[in-house]
Every structure is written in C-alpha cells, then in structure tokens.
From TrEMBL:
Pfam families in UniProt: DUF7134, HATPase_c, HisKA_3
Catalyzed reactions per annotation: ATP + protein L-histidine = ADP + protein N-phospho-L-histidine
GO molecular function: kinase activity
UniProt name for this protein: histidine kinase
Signal transduction histidine kinase subgroup 3 dimerisation and phosphoacceptor domain: residues covered: 183-252
TM spans (from-to): 19-36
InterPro entries: DUF7134, HATPase_C_sf, HATPase_dom, Sensor_HK_TwoCompSys, Sig_transdc_His_kin_sub3_dim/P
PANTHER family registered for this protein in UniProt: NITRATE/NITRITE SENSOR PROTEIN NARX-RELATED (PTHR24421), NITRATE_NITRITE SENSOR PROTEIN NARQ (PTHR24421:SF10)
Biased composition, class Gly residues, residue ranges: 273-283
EC number: 2.7.13.3
Domain spans labelled Histidine kinase/HSP90-like ATPase: 325-431
Signal peptide range in chain numbering: none
C-alpha cells in the first residue's frame, strides 16, 4: 500500500528500483519465450528487439513517454516479424501503466489512441481473421491505462488527506503559540496593575511620612508618622495577598496541552484577572476583582491624599466585564495619584450601565507633572499620562488599559480633560439578555 501511495516521480531510489524491475520483467519474458508457443521462435533479431524493449524500463518513471516510445519502437517490428507475441506483453503493459500513473487523463486517452491504432493495424496484417484477438488486445490496453489513472487519483486523494492533516497540525501549533503569547500578555497586565498600583501608593505614603518627619522635627506628629507607616504596611499586605492569589489562580487553573511533542500551559477561561483588592480575608486574598472592589480602590486613593468621588450605577455586570472595569479604574487612579501634581487633587470615578454598555469614566483636575497631563499628542500616542517610569522611560499604563477594554470587546480613550486634568473613558459592551 505504501508503494501505491508514494508519488512515482518523487520516490527515493526510483532508478535503482526500476532497474531491478526491468530485470525481473526481462526474466519473465525469457520464460514466456521458452515455454509459450504463440508465433515464430525467437532468432537473433527477435532477441535483440526483445532486449531493446526492456532496457528503457530502467528510466520509466523519469521519462515515461520516451520510454513508451522506445518500447513501441522495438515491439512494433517484433510483432511485425511474427515472433512470439506473448513475450513482450509485460514490458508493454508496464510502460503503458507508467504513462497513465504519472500523467493526466487527457494524456492517457491520447496514449490509448496512439498505441491501439498501430497495434490493431499490425494485428490485422499478421492475423486477418483474429477479431477476437483485436478485442482482447484493446481490452488489455484500456484496462492497464484505466488502472494507472485510478492509481494516480488514489495517490492524489491520499496526498490531499495528508496535506489537510499537516495543515490542521500547523493550525493547532499556531493557535497554541498565539494562546501562549496572549497568556504572557495577560500575566504581564495583571502584574503591572497589581504592582504599579501598590508601589505608587507606597511611594505616596512614604513621602507623607518623610514630610512629617522633616517638616518640624521639634513638633513631631508621632500619630501621623505611625498612621503613614501603618498605611504602608497595609498596602504591602494587600499587595502580597493579591500577588499570592494571582499566582494561585494561575497554578490552579493550568491545563496541559500537548502540541507537536511540546507542552503548553494555558490558564482556563475566567482566570484572566487576578484577585481583588484584598477584601474578604485577613491576608488580602479574595475573589476575582469586580465592581464591589471599587470602594477599596477609592479609599486607597484617599489615603494617598486624593479626593475621590465614586458613582456606580450598574447592576448585573458579568464578572469578565467587571474585572476589566476594575483594572481600568485601578490604573487610572494610580496614574492620577502619581501624576496629579497638586495636593488637593480631586478624581471623579463614574460607572453607568445603559443601552447594553458599561461606561467607565475617570477624570481628575490635576495640574500635571513630568510625563503626565497636558501633553495631548504624546498621550494619545501612548506616551504620557500613565506611561511614565523611572528615568522617564515609557511605561505600559495606557497600553494595559486599552488591552483590558479590548479583551471584552470594548474601547478606551484617554487624554487631557475638557478644561484641566486628565480623563479616561471606556465603553465596555454588556451581553444581551436572552428573552425568556
């Protein structure tokens, strides 16, 4: 079966194998010449023509048409001399089969016409009364050509199945690579949202403690210093618990997917976000973040010195959309606290569900320092507010927020506010309820 499935034009060692086949067919012809009596006994010209008909078979797959012509050139005078007619039949049929198995149907039909015409003409002169013999010869020629065409179609069918299987395998590998890349981006977003928010709050609280210690050493407000340090410790505990939950979610929901002999680790759907702000357990671990955690975010920003006005008018928001909205608000508040540039910073956070869309708005009245507010063109190109990093290097705040919005099919726009400050607006689609 493997020999039939293999393309004869690309098979390995085809010339060597065809040489062995030619020798085998020649041996069979000699046996026929010695045992069968279907014409005159072979003389030197007959043996020479018979050998000439078998030698070209060595290159039957490399040059099928030329081999057929060479065989016909030797077999035609052989039959015309009325030598044993059964002897060259195997070589002739093998050459015909090769032409049909390696060419098109049109070429096979033309070959049948070209071969049958001279054959019938020669047979009519050598055997005028052999009508049955003419039918038998025509039947053999047509049957061999048909078998060759059928073998070629079968090989094409098998090749198409193999090609589809290989294409499906490549598609699975590409899909696996894509999922790995998406998973890495998701983990990067989670860690960025978690660490950037917590480190920003720690930085602000540390600055408060340092200011209290250095502003008036003679009248040290020990209570204020202790409060600032307690806030730092609480932020660290929350960040540690949230980071632990993020890692636990990743480990608990991993699935092993074998692709091409390699192992790919992919988190199950629903683990796209880490835990919330540390509500519901002493060590800061809790369920997936959602709209219920916005109050804790607002309180953390207030501790950092910002005035936060929170307004939420949304019920029945799916967990995935709620998690995306939570992370967008978290990053926007972090950017406002980091880049606000004023002591009396006010941040207005609003969430409203209407017409199948959850609209998220975070606007502040900050003066803008560093890479933050007031850089319209840079901000809208992804550099600016929320993008600042140590040494002025660009960060991933706006990129992460836009990816959060796109992950649930939404959009996000960020830029300077209408008058002052900075504004982040996101529209996240809500799934429509099926009518009961």
């Amino acid at each position: 079966m493997a020999v039939v499935n293999r393309d004869p034009l690309t098979a390995p060692h085809r010339t060597r194998n065809d040489a062995f086949l030619a020798v085998g067919v020649a041996v069979l012809a000699v046996i026929f010449a010695l045992l069968l009596d279907d014409g005159l006994p072979l003389g030197p010209p007959g043996w020479a023509l018979l050998a000439g008909a078998h030698v070209p078979l060595v290159w039957r797959r490399s040059r099928p048409l030329l081999v057929l012509l060479a065989v016909a050139a030797c077999v035609t005078p052989y039959h015309a001399l009325d030598y044993n007619h059964a002897v060259p039949i195997p070589a002739t049929l093998l050459a015909l089969y090769t032409v049909a198995a390696t060419g098109t149907v049109r070429r096979s039909l033309l070959t049948a016409v070209v071969v049958l015409g001279p054959t019938l003409i020669i047979n009519s002169f050598t055997n005028p009364d052999g009508a049955l013999e003419l039918l038998r010869i025509s039947g053999w020629v047509i049957a061999v050509l048909f078998f060759g065409v059928d073998a070629r179609f079968y090989r094409q069918y098998v090749a198409s199945i193999v090609e589809r299987a290989e294409r499906a395998e490549r598609t699975r590998e590409e899909e696996a690579r894509r999922r790995v890349v998406e998973e890495r981006l998701r983990i990067a977003r989670d860690l960025h949202d978690l660490l950037a928010h917590s480190i920003t709050l720690i930085g602000v609280q540390t600055s408060v403690a340092a200011h209290v210690l250095t502003a008036d050493p003679d009248r040290l407000d020990r209570k204020a210093v202790a409060q600032a340090l307690d806030d730092i410790a609480e932020t660290c505990r929350t960040a540690r618990g949230e980071l632990r939950t993020t890692l636990e979610v990743l480990r608990a929901n991993e699935m092993s997917v074998s692709v091409g002999g390699e192992r790919e680790w992919v988190a199950e759907p629903g683990s796209g976000s880490s835990s919330g702000p540390g509500l519901g357990s002493p060590d800061g671990r809790g369920p997936l973040p959602g709209l219920d955690g916005l109050g804790a975010l607002a309180e953390a920003a207030r501790v950092a010195g910002a005035k936060v006005e929170l307004s939420v008018h949304a019920d029945g928001v799916p967990p995935s959309v709620g998690a995306a909205a939570y992370r967008i608000v978290q990053e926007a508040l972090t950017n406002a606290v980091r880049h606000g540039g004023r002591d009396d910073l006010t941040v207005r956070v609003g969430l409203r569900a209407a017409e199948g869309t959850l609209r998220v708005t975070v606007a502040d009245d900050g003066a803008g320092q560093g890479t933050g507010h007031g850089v319209s063109s840079a901000v809208r190109n992804g550099v600016g507010h929320g993008q600042g990093a140590v040494g002025g290097a660009p960060g991933f705040g706006l990129v992460g927020m836009r990816e959060r919005a796109r992950s649930v099919g939404g959009t996000l726009d960020a830029g300077p506010g209408p008058t002052v400050g900075f504004e982040v607006t996101a529209e996240l689609p809500l799934p429509r309820e099926e009518p009961s």
